[in-house]
Amino acid sequence: MQSVLDYLKGNQKRFVDELCEYVRFPSVSAQPAHAKDLRNCAEWLVRHCQQIGLEARLCPTRGNPVVLANTRRGKASGRRHFLVYGHYDVQPPEPLELWKTPPFEPTRRGGSLFGRGASDNKGQNLAHLKAVEAYLKTGTELPCDLTFVLEGEEEVGSVSLADFLREHRARLRCDAVVISDTGIPARNLPALTYALRGIAALEIIVHGPSRDLHSGIFGGSVDNPAMALSRLLAGVRDDAGRIVIPGFYDDVAPLTSFERKQMARIPFEAGKYRKFLGVPKLFGERGYTPNEQRTARPTFEINGLTSGYQGEGSKTIVPAWASAKITIRLVPHQSPARVTRAVRAFLKRHCPPTVRLEIRGGHGAEAYMVSPRSANAQAALRALRAAFQCEPVLLREGGSIPIVNQFKKILGADTLLLGLALPDDNAHSPNEKFDLELFAKGQRLGAMLWPELARG
Ligand code: BES
Ligand code: ZN
Questions:
Q1: Which residues hold their Cβ within 5 A of ligand 2, which is an ion?
Q2: Is there a single domain that holds both residue 190 and residue 205?
Q3: Is 153 in the pocket of ligand 1 (CB under 6 A)?
Q4: Distance between CA atoms of 202 and 334, rounded to whole angstroms?
Q5: Ligand 1 centre and the CA of 78: distance in Å?
Q6: 120 C-beta closer than 6 A to ligand 1
Q7: Ligand 1 proximity of 426 Cβ (cutoff 6 Å)
Q8: Model's pTM, two decimal places?
Q9: pLDDT in tens, 159-173
Q10: CA distance linking residue 302 with residue 250, whole number of Å
Q11: Which of 102, 213, 309, 416 is 20 to 30 A removed from 400 (C-alpha atoms)?
Q12: Which domain range does residue 338 map to?
């Protein structure tokens, strides 16, 4: 193990250069114009995996390709087999004018690397690849077999990956999945995340007149779709932060007192948090702490709201339509389909007859929850302790990784979520960055994990 750790230490500069190469691909899965960039990024990954000594290939799917890479299977039968999952696609970088340096020109500032995808998720999955490289290049035997599954559609709901898992079920059969695509509360607080929220996406379009109209000539005699949509959406939530859609909370698993106690132990200062987020006052469902609200309670969020004239200056029109991109975060026991049905019914019931309502369904995924007490979880906690030299915490997190439930359903495997992102990494925001100390710690974690997990 010492030679593995020495190798990691001695190669940090090159590893950061390689992370820069990786981040330079504008692999934005939400925007069809970037399909080629996603492919180029996947091809770069295949070559990279091959250079570090893995067997790797590009697997086409209906969407963006999956990169599959594995250690040469050891002859000793009965060795344990683990998957390492990550994603090479990234969120759109807009609004571009808010970036201090361009999103796809990775730049080192302070102890961080800035660039879209640096933290979510390229830096985190590259850390695992570097750990394995250290084994392979120092001739240190890995105590288990490993397969990397790196996909290009996580940020748009992992729509092609479930079919891919079914198709390759036999060779992907494994003892557990390891993912570093979540966060930790602070540099000295490593974490094992045991729950994620699920998600249901939809787009609501309110259609009004057949074209934009002069608001002076016609305004007042027809409904305004932007106004109608605003009212409709405003009616979804009450002043106490509760969603009023009938049935919305039907299946929600309540927080246990044990969990609430656990959560209260994570350092939190409301004033600091408020300032960090730049809001005049915090807001959330009454009766829950901010940490509970953002990780263990369902929400209804407008992600994008569009209508009418968005250019410079003014334009006096009644817009022809208004639209909203919505995601609903789900907690254990809620079904994306059932919640979506309740939301559709509510919107239909409350939409005025003066406009036409269109609802387009999107991707969906259930929440994830796994026991932090399993033997694998204990092994992961030992590795976290050794790599960070700190006592790890157990977390529930509010984000979603849609494929984790499919790993369970299709492969029967639990997932160990071992994140490396900091709360101020600006994931999905302008000026995303990855802490380079955590990049190095992540590699150490990657190295120390396999002997612990291999023991079973
Ligand atoms: N890395 C995140 C998920 C995450 C972040 C989990 C922080 C827990 C803590 C992932 O890349 C992500 O953003 N997923 C999307 C999935 C969605 C588009 C289906 C999300 O949560 O919005
Ligand atoms: Zn993300």
A1: 120
A2: no
A3: no
A4: 16
A5: 34
A6: yes
A7: no
A8: 0.96
A9: 999 999 999 999 999
A10: 22
A11: 102
A12: 198-252+298-365
